[in-house]
Amino acid sequence: TDPVSLPGLLAMKRRSEKIASLTCYDATAAALQDQAGIEVILVGDSLGNVIQGQPTTLGVTLDHMVYHTACVQRAARRALILADLPFMSYCTPEQAAHSAARLVREGGAQAVKLEGGRERLDIVRFLTDQNVPVCGHLGLQPQSIHRLGRYAVQGRDAESAKRIMEDACLLSEAGASLLVLECIPWELAQAITATVDIPTIGIGAGRHCDGQVLVWQDMLGMSARNLRFSKNFLAGNEGIREAVSAYVREVKTGLFPGDEHSFGRDET
Ligand code: KIV
Ligand code: NA
């Protein structure tokens, strides 16, 4: 099969074919995910949590991201490689371009992800103009943890939901190619997915997103954290290969995420 491309992902959205994505930080897992049919491999700065054992993603550096992206990239044949721009690596368009260039050149990333909405539009435009595809990230933004105070569902009240919807539209207009939605009510994710032309990839954002992403260690039940929106795919499957195939199958058929993995606007 042909390698996954951003136009290919857009075509999947248009024909309502779900996009399966997982985070990945090493070559062994990358080969396995690639062979199981994962379309987007995300080298997430969640590696600060699950690889480095830190309480937040803030300690992750550009060097860390480049190293893990290169490890993943060597083993992936078909999947698109998306790499996170880490905390403080995209404060200006120029710095963002320098950081993205390293992820692309040294890491082999095909697109970069950054957190934030209206305050990042100049950066999204600049990177897109330099031919670096950008994935936005709205809802819960772990790089904002010290401003937020805690990791919590975002966009539950009408005002913040409106703001997230506006940010999604602005990112799309600024040239973003993809949009990650993290921990928002499924109703809001559904509305955003229907409104923007670019594919949405949800985590804790319900079944109506164009695609789903989970953290590798969470979906294998390896991490200590017990997250409502995640699921242990190793349980009930023969091994890791089968677990990843089951994840791809459940995303494609709309079986995952279920209501039990989603947050509703009005529930507490
Ligand atoms: O770093 C990460 O794993 C992410 C996903 C949760 C989307 O950004
Ligand atoms: Na991230």
From TrEMBL:
<feature type="binding site">
    <location>
        <position position="113"/>
    </location>
    <ligand>
        <name>3-methyl-2-oxobutanoate</name>
    </ligand>
</feature>
<feature type="binding site">
    <location>
        <begin position="45"/>
        <end position="46"/>
    </location>
    <ligand>
        <name>3-methyl-2-oxobutanoate</name>
    </ligand>
</feature>
<protein>
    <recommendedName>
        <fullName>3-methyl-2-oxobutanoate hydroxymethyltransferase</fullName>
        <ecNumber>2.1.2.11</ecNumber>
    </recommendedName>
</protein>
<dbReference type="InterPro" id="IPR040442">
    <property type="entry name" value="Pyrv_kinase-like_dom_sf"/>
</dbReference>
<dbReference type="InterPro" id="IPR015813">
    <property type="entry name" value="Pyrv/PenolPyrv_kinase-like_dom"/>
</dbReference>
<dbReference type="GO" id="GO:0008168">
    <property type="term" value="F:methyltransferase activity"/>
</dbReference>
<dbReference type="GO" id="GO:0003864">
    <property type="term" value="F:3-methyl-2-oxobutanoate hydroxymethyltransferase activity"/>
</dbReference>
<keyword id="KW-0808">Transferase</keyword>
<dbReference type="GO" id="GO:0005737">
    <property type="term" value="C:cytoplasm"/>
</dbReference>
<dbReference type="GO" id="GO:0015940">
    <property type="term" value="P:pantothenate biosynthetic process"/>
</dbReference>
<keyword id="KW-0460">Magnesium</keyword>
<feature type="binding site">
    <location>
        <position position="84"/>
    </location>
    <ligand>
        <name>3-methyl-2-oxobutanoate</name>
    </ligand>
</feature>
<comment type="function">
    <text>Catalyzes the reversible reaction in which hydroxymethyl group from 5,10-methylenetetrahydrofolate is transferred onto alpha-ketoisovalerate to form ketopantoate.</text>
</comment>
<dbReference type="Pfam" id="PF02548">
    <property type="entry name" value="Pantoate_transf"/>
</dbReference>
<comment type="pathway">
    <text>Cofactor biosynthesis; (R)-pantothenate biosynthesis; (R)-pantoate from 3-methyl-2-oxobutanoate: step 1/2.</text>
</comment>
<dbReference type="InterPro" id="IPR003700">
    <property type="entry name" value="Pantoate_hydroxy_MeTrfase"/>
</dbReference>
<keyword id="KW-0489">Methyltransferase</keyword>
<dbReference type="GO" id="GO:0000287">
    <property type="term" value="F:magnesium ion binding"/>
</dbReference>
<comment type="similarity">
    <text>Belongs to the PanB family.</text>
</comment>
<keyword id="KW-0479">Metal-binding</keyword>
<keyword id="KW-0963">Cytoplasm</keyword>
<feature type="binding site">
    <location>
        <position position="84"/>
    </location>
    <ligand>
        <name>Mg(2+)</name>
    </ligand>
</feature>
<dbReference type="GO" id="GO:0032259">
    <property type="term" value="P:methylation"/>
</dbReference>
<feature type="active site" description="Proton acceptor">
    <location>
        <position position="182"/>
    </location>
</feature>
<feature type="binding site">
    <location>
        <position position="45"/>
    </location>
    <ligand>
        <name>Mg(2+)</name>
    </ligand>
</feature>
<feature type="binding site">
    <location>
        <position position="115"/>
    </location>
    <ligand>
        <name>Mg(2+)</name>
    </ligand>
</feature>
<keyword id="KW-0566">Pantothenate biosynthesis</keyword>
<comment type="subunit">
    <text>Homodecamer; pentamer of dimers.</text>
</comment>
